[in-house]
Amino acid sequence: MTTDRKNDWGTLIRPEMLPDSLSRPVVTPLSPSVVYASLTPDELDSQYEGRAQGYTYAREGHPNADVLAARIDAMEGCDGGLITGSGMAAVTAVLMGVLKAGDHMIGSDQLYGRSLRLMRDDLPRLGIATSLADPCDVDAMRAAIRPETRMILIEVVSNPTLRVADMAGIAALACEAGLLLVVDNTFTTPRGFRPFDHGADIVLHSVTKLLAGHSDVTLGWVCARDDALQKQIYDFAVTTGLTPSPFDCWLAERGLHTFGLRFDRAEMTAAALADALAGMAGVKRVLYPTRTDHPDAARAAELLGTRGCNMVSFEVEGGRAAANALTEAARGVAFAPTLGDVGTTLSHPASSSHRGLSAEAREALGMSEGFFRVSVGLEEPDALIAEFTRAVAASQAV
Ligand SMILES: *Cc1c(COP(=O)(O)O)cnc(C)c1O
What atom of ligand 1 comes closest to residue 89's alpha carbon? Predict the structure, then answer.
């Protein structure tokens, strides 16, 4: 049972006692070890100096994170990606790991709420100036550039109004002005869109959402095209402890095996649900990227092709009372502010993600009390459409 490298420290608490096996497991083993023991200081040197591959301490990296990162790297068409403890940890690692006091960055005005908050409340406190601009309007982006601007952060499809960014225009602008273009690809996923093929310098994800897909882990991923930049992001993440748990990485890898199947199925159902909603009495408008009545239909077709992704937004007539009746009647759908789960979830921006805004400001963004965002899951399409038919009818009966 012992090999040369195994010890016979019979009196020690942790002798090495894994049974030998000529065959190997087909499932990635879960490696919760925080520390890794080396044989000699020379071996440790060779690891630290990059002459040998090995782990030392889990905050700096562990096998489950590396296996998961390599899978997402392959999907995004890059290598050397880093798994972080959440999607926001990935956003933070990029913004705080790359920018310094005196720099300025521009964000899309429709970013994920916490990304906006990091830009509004935290970066300025550290001497990093920020501005917001509409990602559908490249001239507005250009107008926001200052001499000290270093970075632009966008999402390709915005939450919750599903606007499609002018990716080509922004990529050309970033290139011309020498700015780093960072794309949060959580909504579109690499199955819908691969930002590195369209000029992105850094791509990041909330793995929590569609990639892991089961609402049971919180994780992120980030990769920079440039190795030195990726090293800078990695060092910041390790120093500040934005580390993922091995068990979460293991679960996310398990979820990722079915990601393609889940995404295609949810997308097909989302397209059918969007069309069904558009025909229901009391529905004022439906937003779905492949529908010809989408405000950015031409750009969506150019960037996403026939991919519409799994998110649908719609607006019903009536105020809060109609909204209450709708969620109450949609008992089979979780009214919960997340996305990308195997089950369909319904969110109401006016009472959740955008509750901080005044009613007028929300109205200007097209998010009235009757506005909903649906993250479509894996239910039978007909059953889901029947659920929404009932719920919309209930909302109009009040
Ligand atoms: C959820 C989300 C995040 C944050 O991810 P967490 O894993 O919740 O920290 C960032 N960007 C987008 C677009 C998201 O949907």
Answer: 9
In sequence order, the 6+-apart residues with CB closer than 8 A to the CB of 222 are 81, 82, 84, 90, 93, 94, 202, 203, 204, 205, 233, 237
Express as a percent the part of the chain with pLDDT over 90.
89
Q: What is the pLDDT of residues 235-269, one digit of tens each?
A: 999 999 999 999 999 999 999 999 999 999 999 99
User: Does residue 160 have a cis peptide bond before it, meaning omega lies within 30 degrees of 0?
Assistant: yes
Q: Whose CA is nearest to atom 5 of ligand 1?
A: 87
Q: Ligand 1 mean position to 97 CA, how many Å?
A: 18
Summarised one tens digit per residue, pLDDT across range 55-108 is: 999 999 999 999 999 999 999 999 999 999 999 999 999 999 999 999 999 999
pLDDT digits (tens, 9 = 90+) for 313-352: 999 999 999 999 999 999 999 999 889 999 999 999 999 9
Q: How far apart are CA 375 and CA 270, in angstroms?
A: 8
Residue ranges of domains in the chain: 61-256, 259-396
The DSSP bridge pattern shows strands 180-184 and 202-206 to be parallel
**129 pLDDT exceeds 80?**
yes
User: Tell me, what's the pLDDT at 2?
Assistant: 43
Helix axes 63-76, 246-256, angle to 10 degrees: 40
Nearest CA to ligand 1 atom 8: 87
Rounded to two decimals, the pTM is 0.95
Residues with CB under 6 A from ligand 1: 86-88, 112, 155, 159, 184, 186-187, 206, 208-209, 218, 220
**What are the residue numbers of the active site?**
59, 112, 184, 209
Helix (H) or strand (E) holding 238: helix 227-240
Residue nearest to atom 12 of ligand 1 (CA): 112
CATH topology of domain 259-396: Aspartate Aminotransferase, domain 1 (3.90.1150)
Residue holding tokens 């750009």?
Answer: 299
Question: Which residue is closest in CA terms to ligand 1's atom 1?
Answer: 206
- Residue 298 C-alpha to ligand 1 middle, in angstroms? 27
DSSP string, 265-303: HHHHHHHHHHHHHHTSTTEEEEE-TTSTTSTTHHHHHHH
Q: Which fold has domain 61-256?
A: Aspartate Aminotransferase; domain 2 (3.40.640)
